[in-house]
């Protein structure tokens, strides 16, 4: 609320009235519906335009109600005729720049202290136009919390950001990139704060908690990566079966934080290794034998060594059909080869017999047709007896006998 005190000194009344009217003009601008709100993060650069009509000989000025030490606004910049420039006496003048053509005010390296009302005025004769801005400033979000702890322990996590002015940034925690995480507001003067507590478990290991700051159209974030230490567990051997072949792989894996170290007893031919797993290959020296292999996984948590063991028993056989110089493997190879040769011979013999039968059938059909064409009738023989069989008949008979 603004109060007006009337002085008894008539000479002072015009000056006091001018101060009150000027202060009222600029104070109204902070709540005027035409005031534009500008959101900025500390350390960034802000540009405030001056979109006012300019008469032939205007007087353009920038004022603020931020660094003023009395009710009067503080002049930042003035341009009248050939005289123009930043006010040398302004305490923040080193961070201000005004474009000589469009009179845009640039505030470099914005600080929390820069929050407040800024006005651009255009004066011509008795008319004054102004464009008002309210600059709201927030700091960057700052995440705090326990990053390393054992399963079962409880950690405290908070996200906070300083701000100045009439507008407060909104803070929210998220687990991972998208999942909203429940938290509560902690109210402090000029400090936005959001916090939550977490009792850690194995599933939280490697989780990232992200705090999002929303300030107008500006979005910033910070995060905390959580590492939860827990003893080795979930030891798995794969595959599980009664027999293996030479060069086949057995894989062992386990969970834990820190990542478990995995070994085999006895130490067989080394295979491959990765994050939390290791494998071995079955050596040829175990062919025809029974073997037992034990997988051992260990890690160190809170100064204590945790070990988990698991074993598998199996028999080893050589590759089926593989080359072997001695033993049953050689006999099986020879037997397989002889069976393959016998099968091939039978197939070839069947093809040859089929071709011979086909040739015989064609020859019989040809001779029968030839006989029908040359066989004389009774009238042609004068009633004589039938002549002896022709050569073709003899051959046909001969062929039939051969078939029998």
The rounded distance between the terminal residues' Cα atoms is 136 Å
How many β-strand stretches? 26
Largest sheet: 10 strands, mixed
Low confidence ranges: 1-31, 322-338, 377-387, 390-404
> Which percent range fits the helix content?
10-25%
Supply database-style keywords.
404 residues; ten-stranded mixed beta sheet; five-stranded mixed beta sheet; 3 helices; elongated; disordered C terminus
Outline the structure in words.
Helix 2 (327-374) packs antiparallel against helix 3. This protein has helices at 13-29, 327-374, 391-403; strands at residues 36-41, 46-48, 59-64, 74-80, 83-86, 96-98, 105-107, 116-124, 127-138, 142-145, 148-150, 154-164, 170-175, 179-181, 184-185, 191-199, 208-215, 218-225, 227-238, 243-245, 249-257, 261-265, 269-274, 277-281, 290-301, 304-317. Helix content is 19%, strand content 43%. Strands 1, 3, 4, 5, 8, 9, 10, 12, 15 and 16 form a ten-stranded mixed β-sheet that branches. Strands 11-19-21-24-23 form a five-stranded mixed β-sheet, with no helix packed on it. It contains three helices and 26 strands.
